Amino acid sequence: MAQRSYSSFERRVARILEATPAVRNGLKWVYHRMNYLVHREPGFRFAVHRDVGILTVADWVGTSLGDVDYFFGYYDKTPWFADMQQLVMHRLTGGEVDILVCDRRRKIVRVVGKTKVWNYQQGSMAQWLPCRREPTVIYNDLCGRDLVARIVELDGEARTVPFPIQVVHPRRPEALSLNYKRLMWLRPDYGYTPPVANFDVRQDVTRDGIWWMDLQTGAVRLIISLARLMETEPRVEMVGSDHKVNHALYSPEGTRFVFLHRWFGPKGKFSRLYVADPNGENLRILLDHRMVSHYNWLDEDHLLVWGRTVEQGDRYYLIDVRTGERSIVGDGVLNSYGDGHPSYSPDRRWIVTDTYPDKARQRTLLLYEVETGRCIEIGRFFAPWTFDGTRRCDLHPRWSPDGRLISIDSAHDGRRRSYLLDVSAIVGRQ
After folding, report:
1. Judging by beta carbons within 10 Å of its beta carbon (0-12, 13-18, 19+), is residue 213 exposed, middle or buried?
2. CA distance 189 to 178
3. pLDDT band at 8, cuts 50/70/90?
4. What is the CA angle 168-348-90, rounded to 5?
């Protein structure tokens, strides 16, 4: 591990300061800049492993996307359609984003939609609709003053469903939704700016939470309310706090989903991780030790999580969501890099994850071989200060369907761009 990574002692100090968020954020701002003055590498932009190829999405598709910023979004989905010949992207155009489909076979870029509801971390949640064989894109948008989702068949019709999507079911035409206006209030990184009529910033907790939506009929119903979460094994830290849910994620076959419940109050930020059946029943707490961050599924029953336990601290844990049993993944290796955005390769042999900027403002991209415990740094990317806070550009690594390419977003050259890394020479080795 590079010596510029933040040490376990520094992370312990950060944990101590969690009870005073304003103090923590102020000290963090100063400390990061002081470290950068010591550890910076003048002129450094990026470096990749000798066995890894890298190119921009524009290079991959064989035509220009324009002299503007473009990106995909979050780490828990793939920009590729199943045929590996088409990518969906966001292109910034003032306060809006274009929804692009980049067609490598025909070497063209198509604008299939525009939207004013987006953020730098997740875009507009634009993605391919997995339950459709023909190429179909879904993304969040405004219809009048309502937050909705648009469904666009590339060679057919476009239609609208009445709520925005948070996650789409992998096998059925249904999705989960949440209140992006509450997110804008409590976590602007993931919320939407435009005023809307069908969601409220401080919606009553009995009428806010996680909704199920039928993507064919538009039927919607609230399946888990914030009030229900607040009544589930309540903690004293919840008193006087504001609550939200975020990052709902179906299992690979859609037999269950997980999500975060977070609250902000006099004692700082607290997070819980829950699992539930697709209808919201069998709700269970998986982690409840203040900090839970990013996660992704190994299979229907096991979830990889960066989280905290009292016994073993902040680690990557593999949790059996049926029993709650957990084991550490990459002990002494992955945990030394800190929090990241993990996911398993399609063959489940590898984990890709990334890091937050180190003392030199470099984000590291990692491959971890599950069977051997081997960890390979496959890239380092500079994170300019202008891309910080809500404008930050996390790598958010995503696997291609064939497991040979990894998609990332990066601003190391001063523009927000999407890049594709060919890792076949590494992951193809036995």
Report:
1. buried
2. 15
3. confident
4. 40
The contacts of residue 416 (CB under 8 Å, 6+ apart) are 69, 70, 71, 92, 120, 387, 393, 409, 410
Instruction: Give the separation between CA 116 and CA 97, rounded to whole angstroms.
Output: 7
Taking the CB of residue 155, how many other CB atoms lie within 10 A of it? Answer: 7
Through-space distance between the first and last CA atoms of the chain, rounded to whole angstroms:
24
Spatial CA neighbour of 175 closest among 183, 165, 185:
165
380-400 pLDDT per residue, tens:
999 999 999 999 999 999 999
d(CA 306, CA 314): 7
- Tell me how far apart the alpha carbons of residues 257 and 295 are, in angstroms, rounded to a whole number: 12
pLDDT in tens, 331-373: 999 999 999 999 999 999 999 999 999 999 999 999 999 999 9
Q: Chain-centre distance of CA 315, in angstroms?
A: 18
- Look at residue 80 and give its three-state secondary structure: strand
Query: In the 3-class helix/strand/coil scheme, how is 114-155 assigned residue by residue?
Result: EECCCECCCECCCEECCCCCCCEEEEEEEECCEEEEEEEECC
CB 99 within 8 A of CB 62: no
CB 175 within 8 A of CB 169: yes
Instruction: Determine the distance from the C-alpha atom of residue 274 to the mean position of all C-alpha atoms in its chain, rounded to a whole number.
Output: 17
**Rounded to an integer, what distance in angstroms lies between the CA atom of residue 279 and that of residue 368?**
34
Q: How far apart are CA 126 and CA 149, in angstroms?
A: 10
CA distance 305 to 190: 20
Token pair for residue 261?
């419940």
Furthest C-alpha separation in the chain: 59
Q: Scanning the structure block, which residue is given the tokens 């969501």?
A: 321
Task: Name the token pair of 260.
Answer: 């975060």
Look at strands 86-93 and 96-103 and give their pairing.
antiparallel
SS3 of 60, please? helix
Query: Residue 186, Cβ neighbours under 10 Å: how many?
Result: 19
